[in-house]
Structures are given as structure tokens and as C-alpha cells.
Specification:
single chain, 41% helix, alpha+beta
Length: 246
């Protein structure tokens, strides 16, 4: 049977309808809970309707926002923008709760998936400890096939519809790893952002801003070190002079 090859853009997005209320508990490790908003009635030509307009979010934007979460307040704003971490079904109204510590674990898991986790070919893997078994299940979930639809639109495209943030984060990692390009963490210590190496030229920083800031810091550090060394040398010379004078 002959094969035909098509080149189509892949369009991944999180698709929701309506909006969500997000509540954060007052615990030391807060719990985030979600409730679907009721649709607001619309009236056109004397006819009322309660249809919910779809909202679409770019999955790569969601992932970048997830990686930027550092505090419970960050997580609250994140969920208020993109909705629940996990819902039971597409366009469903039942969402699972998640603790802030769970958000942090998921954030680090997807960051690690970009930087170090190799795609799993589905071959046999064994685990004896709970941690090893957990890693096997994580890899099974991360690298299972994406559900795609070929859509006849202008221009034609392949669409990946994600039902929640978890789906969106997985799709973003899956698609970014398809081309085999390596990822690296920004060498600026207070940045640490993951970025793709899209050329053979080695890069240490995610942006020219980070590279410039680190260069300025390194220069100032060398300047301080040189000043401290000069001060120490001058002090030593003065002490030697005093001893010689005695």
C-alpha cells in the first residue's frame, strides 16, 4: 500500500466554555478548588439563549505561566486565568482539587520532561519501589499518543484539543520534543527558565537580557574581588613597613 505524506501545521490549544470560580484555602499548603460558573443568558431578537462561548488558550503560553508559578498567589492567578488543573471530561463541570505542593510537583515534572526525560518507546520497564512505579506511570502518561483531528479549514490544520491544564502541559511537552532539539536551563541562577537549543551554536542563557545581566554581574564581581585584593595587598605592605621601622 502506497503512503502519502502531508505537511500540515499542528494547532494545540486548551478549549473551555464559560468560566470557573477558584477558591484557595487558608492552609499552610493551600488547596485550590473549582466550581463552574453558570452561563449568563443572552437575548437576541427577543430570544433568550444560555449558550457558552468557547475560549481557547495557547498551550505553550499555559506552560510558560505554569513554570512561572512560585507562590500560592501565583497559582491562584494562574488558575483564575486558565481554569482547573484537571476535569473529568471535555467541557465538564466537575474539577478535581489540587494542593499547592501538587502544583509545584507538576511544574517540576513538566520542566524535567523538557530537560531530561527521554521519550518512552512503550517497551517493558520495571519498578520495585513506589517511586520507581510512579515514574513508570508518569512516563506512560507523558508519552502516550496525542489525540489529533485533521480539520478542513483555511488553511487546513491538525488540531489538538486539550480539556484542561494537565492536558495542555502534556501536549506542549510532547510537541516540543518531537523534533529532537535539546533543551537547557538558563545559566542565570535567579532565572532557570527552560529554552530550546534551535541551532548548533551553544547557548547558556534563555535571552540576551539574561546574558547581559549575568555579564554585568560577573564584571562587578571581578571588580569587587580585584578591589578587595588590592586593599589586602596595601594593608600587608603597610604592616611590613611598620615592622621595618621598628
Amino acid at each position: 500500500m502506497s503512503k502519502r505524506f502531508y505537511s500540515l501545521p499542528v494547532v494545540p490549544y486548551l478549549e473551555t466554555r464559560g468560566g470557573w470560580r477558584v477558591q484557595m484555602s487558608g492552609d499552610a499548603d493551600p488547596i485550590f478548588s473549582f466550581s463552574a460558573r453558570r452561563p449568563q443568558p443572552k437575548e437576541e431578537g427577543g430570544v433568550k439563549s444560555w449558550s457558552l462561548d468557547p475560549t481557547q488558550f495557547n498551550v505553550f503560553e499555559i506552560r510558560e505561566s505554569l513554570f512561572a508559578v512560585r507562590t500560592p498567589a501565583d497559582a491562584l492567578r494562574f488558575f483564575e486565568t486558565f481554569g482547573p488543573w484537571q476535569i473529568e471530561r471535555h467541557f465538564g463541570t466537575e474539577a478535581r482539587e489540587i494542593r499547592f505542593s501538587g502544583v509545584v510537583r507538576q511544574r517540576d515534572f513538566y520542566l524535567d520532561a523538557l530537560l531530561t526525560r527521554d521519550p518512552w518507546d512503550g517497551g517493558p520497564r520495571r519498578g520495585t519501589t513506589d517511586e520507581e512505579l510512579g515514574a513508570v506511570m508518569q512516563d506512560w502518561y507523558l508519552w502516550q499518543p496525542l489525540a489529533m483531528e485533521m480539520v478542513f479549514q483555511q488553511p487546513p490544520a491538525v488540531v489538538v484539543r486539550c480539556k484542561d491544564i494537565q492536558d495542555a502541559a502534556r501536549a506542549s511537552v510532547f510537541l516540543d520534543r518531537l523534533d529532537g532539539s535539546p533543551w537547557r536551563r538558563c545559566a542565570r541562577e535567579d532565572c532557570g527558565k527552560a529554552f530550546k537549543l534551535e541551532s548548533k551554536r551553544a547557548r547558556l542563557y534563555c535571552s540576551t537580557d539574561c546574558a547581559h545581566l549575568q555579564s554585568v554581574r560577573s564584571y562587578n564581581e571581578r571588580k569587587r574581588a580585584a578591589a578587595a585584593k588590592a586593599k589586602s595587598t596595601t594593608k600587608g605592605a603597610k604592616q611590613t613597613t611598620r615592622k621595618a621601622g621598628k
